[in-house]
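User: Hi! Is it possible to get a structure for several chains at once, not just one? Here's what I have:
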Amino acid sequence: MDSWKVNPRVFWTLFTPGTFWLVLFFLIPLGWLFHDSFSDKISITETQFTGTLANYIRAFDAVYLTIIWKSVWISAVATALCLLTAYPIAFGICFAPAKWKPLLLLLVILPFWINLLIRTYALIAVFRTQGYLNLVLGWVGLGPYEMLYNDGAVIVGLVYVYMPFMVLPLYATIERLDRSFLEASLDLGGSQVQTFFKVTLPLTMPGIVTGIILVFIPCLGSFLTPAMLGGANAIMIGNVIEDQFKAANDWPFGSALSFLLMYVTFGALALRAFLASRSKGVDV
Amino acid sequence: MAQTLKPGSGPLDYGNRTWLKILFAAIFFALYAPIFTLIAFSFNTDKRGVVWRGFTFDNYVKAWNNADLQEAMLNSLTIAFISTIIATILGSMVALVLWRFRFPFKAGYEGVMSLPIVIPEICMGVSLLLFFTNAGMMAWSVSFVWPFNLINIIIAHVAFCFPFVAIVVRSRLVGFNRQLEEASKDLGASEWQTFWNVIVPFMMPGLIAGALLAFTLSLDDFVITYFTSGPETVTFPVKVYSLVRRGVSPEINAASTALIVITVVATVLAMKLQAPDKSGKG
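Assistant: Yes, the chains can be modeled jointly so their relative placement is included. Here is the combined structure:
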């Protein structure tokens, strides 16, 4: 690797375009959003910067606090379920015969590339009152049940959509796990269960933390899944933000809510960096 | 370590455990059943789409002849195509700069470069809506002729795609043998000739994989497009969203299936190209 001073002309040619785009169309918009979160709405279309904290304080009104709290616990439950389903998947892929690994990985990742909207739509077709699941339940004389438009539907939707995010970091750490540790534990008389909880789990913790962050952040900021599967009964913070920028037309408040999400994101990333630095290079 | 047990039954051969296989099958079923049902029912003759009544291509014909869907699909493909070209160029330049140079605050620069990947999509969507509106580009772009009226969406898509391209291309560049570059320069090639005749051919699989990735990301994006598109411009996911709110129909299934096929083909191709290439290590 050369110092940039070795060939400044090449450096600046390569450095400028991407940086320009990132600054102009990413950082400046975010800065503007940050700036607007301290503004007052003075007419239907105008806002004025006043340095007010009113938008942030308003987010802690009972009505919004309930929604924030609900978003947090829905995301937490969805993340936990993702972990519970993704861990055996990742573990299984790592211990599968070598020739199967690429195919199994591809099968896990592929749904992630299918349009989020289409996958959610597919879930609606399964879970709606005249849907396939109720059809099958009907054969054994059950139902039909109303399964959509509640918190449970949103949780199922989020798990369905974000599970691949959890598998990849878990796979990366489990794959690098030194198997002689497991052998040692088993040789020394540990049972399979003890070995899992005392050896495998602690050693794969970095992957678990990364997976949790990778799933929790998009869950918390999700807007499409609750809008489609939750309806009016399971509104999350993303839906409130959307409402502020569309129907309710209160952009400063929407900006403040978006930045609350950003603060959580930064906090999660800082936590991950901290944990990664502590585990000395076992980074994912 | 001596293996005295029968192959497949050792204490660490978890891959052969029945319970793990059953769990695997169950999770993969849950993951794929909805998608396969969606695809299967795009060929169903029943309008309400619950019960199988018979095989037909009618839904595809109807979706194809639906002018709104056609326009939305054309917009989506145009946006994806243009954003992919710009994002691939920007992303590979960033990858090259990060791969080749040391410069002050490099770690910070890398961190900021990966921000578009990690922050919640909705934050990026609303910040761009705010930016385009305040900069007058929201109102301004409406007056443009197609495809220039898509400029806001294209700008937004490039902004979230090119950091992904940078990552893919950079991981390819890591395998590059710098001696090839030195050899090229020793043999009298200029900086530009070396770049074009040595580095670019080596980068090519990464470039194509990155481009395919950008293409699928752009084609699939709903949230950011939803916020940055004006009332006049509709992309395919945005159109499907408004249709789905009115209910389930086999026509949507047909259109969705078409999109699934496009993205799956692009993804599988991208993954094949991204697979580590032993021959290039030199």
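Chain A touches chain B through 87 residues (CB under 8 Å). Residues 62-94 of chain A form the longest helix (33 residues).

User: Great, thank you!
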